[in-house]
Amino acid sequence: MLLAALSTLSNRLFPDGGIERAVCASGPPFFFALSKWARHLATMTKNADLAALIRTIPDYPKPGILFRDVSTLLLDGQGFRQTIDRMAALVAPDTQLIAGIEARGFIVAAGLSYALGLGKLMLRKPGKLPGEKIGIDYALEYGTDRIELHTGQVKPGQKVVLIDDLIATGGTALAGIELIRQAGGVVEQALFIVDLPELGGADKLRRAGVEPTALIGFDGH
Ligand code: AMP
Q1: 54-92: pLDDT as tens digits
Q2: pTM of the predicted model as reported, rounded to 2 decimal places
Q3: 174 lines ligand 1 (CB under 6 A)
Q4: Among 90, 157, 174, 216, which is 20 to 30 Å from 11 by CA?
Q5: If we measure between CA atoms, which residue out of 218, 215, 185, 208 comes closest to residue 88?
Q6: For residue 70, how far is the Cα from the chain centroid?
Q7: From the CA of 25, how far away is ligand 1's center (Å)?
Q8: Considering Cα of 170, then 173, then 175, then 180, what sign does the dihedral take?
Protein backbone atom coordinates (compact mmCIF):
# COMPACT_ATOMS: atom_id res chain seq x y z
CA MET A 1 0.00 0.00 0.00
CA LEU A 2 2.72 2.43 1.10
CA LEU A 3 4.91 1.23 -1.79
CA ALA A 4 2.10 1.81 -4.30
CA ALA A 5 1.53 5.36 -2.97
CA LEU A 6 5.30 6.09 -3.14
CA SER A 7 5.35 4.64 -6.65
CA THR A 8 2.59 6.94 -7.88
CA LEU A 9 4.18 9.94 -6.19
CA SER A 10 7.72 9.31 -7.45
CA ASN A 11 6.54 8.52 -10.99
CA ARG A 12 4.37 11.66 -11.12
CA LEU A 13 6.95 13.98 -9.55
CA PHE A 14 10.01 12.49 -11.22
CA PRO A 15 9.14 10.72 -14.45
CA ASP A 16 12.05 9.19 -16.36
CA GLY A 17 14.35 8.66 -13.35
CA GLY A 18 14.43 12.36 -12.45
CA ILE A 19 14.29 11.51 -8.75
CA GLU A 20 17.87 10.33 -8.90
CA ARG A 21 19.06 13.43 -10.74
CA ALA A 22 17.26 15.62 -8.19
CA VAL A 23 18.99 13.87 -5.28
CA CYS A 24 22.39 13.86 -7.06
CA ALA A 25 22.16 17.58 -7.70
CA SER A 26 22.24 18.10 -3.92
CA GLY A 27 25.96 17.18 -3.82
CA PRO A 28 28.34 14.22 -3.24
CA PRO A 29 29.38 12.01 -1.49
CA PHE A 30 26.57 11.36 1.05
CA PHE A 31 23.98 11.88 -1.64
CA PHE A 32 25.55 9.23 -3.85
CA ALA A 33 24.26 6.51 -1.50
CA LEU A 34 20.93 8.30 -1.31
CA SER A 35 20.76 8.51 -5.11
CA LYS A 36 21.32 4.73 -5.40
CA TRP A 37 18.53 4.19 -2.91
CA ALA A 38 16.27 6.61 -4.78
CA ARG A 39 16.93 4.83 -8.07
CA HIS A 40 16.33 1.48 -6.40
CA LEU A 41 13.01 2.69 -4.98
CA ALA A 42 11.92 4.24 -8.28
CA THR A 43 12.80 1.05 -10.21
CA MET A 44 11.09 -1.19 -7.67
CA THR A 45 7.82 0.73 -7.80
CA LYS A 46 7.50 1.62 -11.52
CA ASN A 47 4.94 -0.01 -13.79
CA ALA A 48 3.30 -1.93 -10.97
CA ASP A 49 0.41 -2.87 -13.29
CA LEU A 50 2.81 -4.82 -15.56
CA ALA A 51 4.80 -6.25 -12.64
CA ALA A 52 1.56 -7.79 -11.35
CA LEU A 53 1.25 -9.75 -14.62
CA ILE A 54 4.63 -11.48 -14.20
CA ARG A 55 4.55 -14.83 -12.42
CA THR A 56 7.34 -15.79 -10.01
CA ILE A 57 8.39 -19.44 -9.83
CA PRO A 58 10.71 -20.15 -6.89
CA ASP A 59 13.67 -22.53 -7.18
CA TYR A 60 13.68 -22.70 -11.00
CA PRO A 61 15.92 -23.73 -12.68
CA LYS A 62 17.99 -24.10 -9.49
CA PRO A 63 17.28 -23.82 -5.74
CA GLY A 64 17.45 -20.18 -4.63
CA ILE A 65 16.55 -18.67 -8.01
CA LEU A 66 13.26 -16.75 -8.26
CA PHE A 67 12.33 -17.25 -11.92
CA ARG A 68 10.46 -14.19 -13.19
CA ASP A 69 8.21 -15.76 -15.79
CA VAL A 70 7.09 -13.21 -18.40
CA SER A 71 4.95 -15.82 -20.20
CA THR A 72 2.01 -14.65 -18.05
CA LEU A 73 2.57 -11.04 -19.16
CA LEU A 74 2.72 -12.16 -22.80
CA LEU A 75 -0.65 -13.92 -22.37
CA ASP A 76 -2.25 -10.60 -21.49
CA GLY A 77 -2.87 -8.69 -24.74
CA GLN A 78 -3.23 -5.26 -23.17
CA GLY A 79 -0.31 -5.93 -20.83
CA PHE A 80 1.94 -6.84 -23.76
CA ARG A 81 0.78 -3.83 -25.77
CA GLN A 82 1.51 -1.54 -22.82
CA THR A 83 4.93 -3.18 -22.38
CA ILE A 84 5.86 -2.49 -26.00
CA ASP A 85 4.39 1.05 -26.01
CA ARG A 86 6.25 2.01 -22.82
CA MET A 87 9.53 0.51 -24.05
CA ALA A 88 9.14 2.09 -27.51
CA ALA A 89 8.82 5.50 -25.84
CA LEU A 90 12.25 4.95 -24.24
CA VAL A 91 14.15 4.06 -27.44
CA ALA A 92 16.66 6.80 -28.36
CA PRO A 93 15.42 8.69 -31.44
CA ASP A 94 18.61 8.10 -33.44
CA THR A 95 18.36 4.30 -33.07
CA GLN A 96 18.70 2.45 -36.39
CA LEU A 97 18.40 -1.22 -35.44
CA ILE A 98 16.71 -3.32 -32.72
CA ALA A 99 18.79 -6.28 -31.49
CA GLY A 100 16.93 -9.05 -29.64
CA ILE A 101 18.48 -11.87 -27.63
CA GLU A 102 17.01 -15.37 -28.16
CA ALA A 103 14.44 -16.36 -27.13
CA ARG A 104 12.20 -14.12 -25.01
CA GLY A 105 14.18 -11.08 -26.16
CA PHE A 106 12.99 -11.82 -29.73
CA ILE A 107 9.34 -11.35 -28.72
CA VAL A 108 9.99 -7.94 -27.20
CA ALA A 109 12.37 -6.89 -29.99
CA ALA A 110 9.82 -7.89 -32.65
CA GLY A 111 7.15 -5.74 -30.99
CA LEU A 112 9.49 -2.77 -30.81
CA SER A 113 10.69 -3.33 -34.37
CA TYR A 114 7.07 -3.21 -35.59
CA ALA A 115 6.12 -0.24 -33.40
CA LEU A 116 9.11 1.85 -34.51
CA GLY A 117 9.46 0.63 -38.09
CA LEU A 118 13.08 -0.44 -37.49
CA GLY A 119 14.81 -3.63 -38.56
CA LYS A 120 15.50 -6.40 -36.06
CA LEU A 121 18.78 -8.21 -35.56
CA MET A 122 18.74 -11.70 -34.05
CA LEU A 123 21.37 -12.68 -31.48
CA ARG A 124 20.93 -16.46 -31.50
CA LYS A 125 21.81 -19.50 -29.43
CA PRO A 126 24.64 -21.62 -30.94
CA GLY A 127 24.01 -23.71 -34.04
CA LYS A 128 20.90 -21.86 -35.25
CA LEU A 129 22.34 -19.42 -37.78
CA PRO A 130 22.91 -20.88 -41.26
CA GLY A 131 25.23 -18.18 -42.62
CA GLU A 132 28.74 -16.98 -41.76
CA LYS A 133 28.77 -15.93 -38.12
CA ILE A 134 30.72 -14.67 -35.12
CA GLY A 135 30.02 -15.80 -31.56
CA ILE A 136 30.87 -15.20 -27.94
CA ASP A 137 30.75 -17.41 -24.81
CA TYR A 138 29.53 -15.92 -21.54
CA ALA A 139 28.61 -16.80 -17.92
CA LEU A 140 24.96 -16.91 -16.82
CA GLU A 141 23.36 -16.55 -13.38
CA TYR A 142 22.91 -20.31 -13.64
CA GLY A 143 25.49 -21.84 -16.03
CA THR A 144 27.22 -20.78 -19.24
CA ASP A 145 25.96 -20.02 -22.72
CA ARG A 146 26.93 -18.66 -26.13
CA ILE A 147 25.30 -16.31 -28.61
CA GLU A 148 26.01 -15.81 -32.29
CA LEU A 149 25.41 -13.18 -34.93
CA HIS A 150 25.38 -13.32 -38.74
CA THR A 151 28.31 -11.34 -40.10
CA GLY A 152 27.43 -8.42 -42.38
CA GLN A 153 24.07 -7.73 -40.73
CA VAL A 154 25.27 -4.69 -38.74
CA LYS A 155 26.55 -1.71 -40.72
CA PRO A 156 29.70 0.01 -39.39
CA GLY A 157 28.64 2.84 -37.07
CA GLN A 158 24.99 1.76 -37.02
CA LYS A 159 23.22 2.66 -33.75
CA VAL A 160 21.78 -0.47 -32.17
CA VAL A 161 19.60 -0.83 -29.08
CA LEU A 162 19.94 -4.14 -27.23
CA ILE A 163 16.73 -5.83 -26.05
CA ASP A 164 16.06 -8.72 -23.68
CA ASP A 165 13.21 -9.68 -21.36
CA LEU A 166 15.33 -9.52 -18.21
CA ILE A 167 18.75 -8.46 -16.94
CA ALA A 168 20.21 -10.35 -13.98
CA THR A 169 24.02 -10.54 -13.74
CA GLY A 170 24.33 -8.76 -17.08
CA GLY A 171 26.44 -11.52 -18.67
CA THR A 172 24.02 -12.13 -21.53
CA ALA A 173 23.49 -8.44 -22.31
CA LEU A 174 27.23 -7.67 -22.14
CA ALA A 175 27.96 -10.57 -24.50
CA GLY A 176 25.37 -9.20 -26.93
CA ILE A 177 26.85 -5.71 -26.70
CA GLU A 178 30.37 -7.05 -27.25
CA LEU A 179 29.25 -9.06 -30.28
CA ILE A 180 27.43 -6.10 -31.89
CA ARG A 181 30.47 -3.88 -31.23
CA GLN A 182 32.76 -6.53 -32.80
CA ALA A 183 30.48 -6.40 -35.84
CA GLY A 184 30.96 -2.59 -36.05
CA GLY A 185 27.71 -1.44 -34.42
CA VAL A 186 27.40 1.29 -31.78
CA VAL A 187 25.50 0.25 -28.63
CA GLU A 188 24.72 2.93 -26.05
CA GLN A 189 21.30 1.78 -24.85
CA ALA A 190 19.77 -1.47 -23.60
CA LEU A 191 16.13 -2.03 -22.65
CA PHE A 192 14.54 -4.77 -20.57
CA ILE A 193 11.13 -5.56 -19.15
CA VAL A 194 12.69 -6.63 -15.83
CA ASP A 195 15.85 -5.74 -13.91
CA LEU A 196 17.10 -7.65 -10.87
CA PRO A 197 19.23 -4.82 -9.42
CA GLU A 198 20.70 -6.93 -6.60
CA LEU A 199 22.59 -8.94 -9.22
CA GLY A 200 24.38 -5.83 -10.51
CA GLY A 201 23.90 -6.35 -14.25
CA ALA A 202 22.63 -2.84 -14.93
CA ASP A 203 25.67 -1.34 -13.18
CA LYS A 204 27.98 -3.51 -15.33
CA LEU A 205 26.31 -2.16 -18.47
CA ARG A 206 26.76 1.44 -17.29
CA ARG A 207 30.47 0.74 -16.77
CA ALA A 208 30.56 -0.57 -20.37
CA GLY A 209 29.14 2.74 -21.65
CA VAL A 210 25.58 1.47 -22.13
CA GLU A 211 22.55 3.05 -20.45
CA PRO A 212 20.22 0.28 -19.23
CA THR A 213 16.52 0.88 -18.56
CA ALA A 214 13.94 -1.61 -17.33
CA LEU A 215 10.22 -1.13 -16.91
CA ILE A 216 10.18 -3.17 -13.70
CA GLY A 217 12.61 -3.96 -10.89
CA PHE A 218 12.28 -6.99 -8.67
CA ASP A 219 14.08 -7.63 -5.40
CA GLY A 220 16.08 -10.83 -5.04
CA HIS A 221 17.64 -13.27 -7.46
P1 AMP B 1 22.07 -12.59 -17.01
O2 AMP B 1 23.01 -12.93 -18.13
O3 AMP B 1 22.51 -13.14 -15.70
O4 AMP B 1 21.79 -11.11 -16.97
O5 AMP B 1 20.70 -13.35 -17.32
C6 AMP B 1 19.79 -12.83 -18.23
C7 AMP B 1 19.18 -13.89 -19.09
O8 AMP B 1 18.83 -15.07 -18.35
C9 AMP B 1 17.90 -13.38 -19.71
O10 AMP B 1 17.85 -13.81 -21.05
C11 AMP B 1 16.80 -13.97 -18.87
O12 AMP B 1 15.75 -14.41 -19.68
C13 AMP B 1 17.43 -15.13 -18.11
N14 AMP B 1 17.28 -15.03 -16.65
C15 AMP B 1 18.28 -14.88 -15.75
N16 AMP B 1 17.82 -14.86 -14.50
C17 AMP B 1 16.49 -14.97 -14.60
C18 AMP B 1 15.42 -15.00 -13.62
N19 AMP B 1 15.67 -14.89 -12.31
N20 AMP B 1 14.15 -15.10 -14.08
C21 AMP B 1 13.90 -15.22 -15.41
N22 AMP B 1 14.85 -15.20 -16.37
C23 AMP B 1 16.13 -15.09 -15.97
Answers
A1: 999 999 988 999 999 999 999 999 999 999 999 999 999
A2: 0.85
A3: no
A4: 174
A5: 215
A6: 13
A7: 33
A8: negative
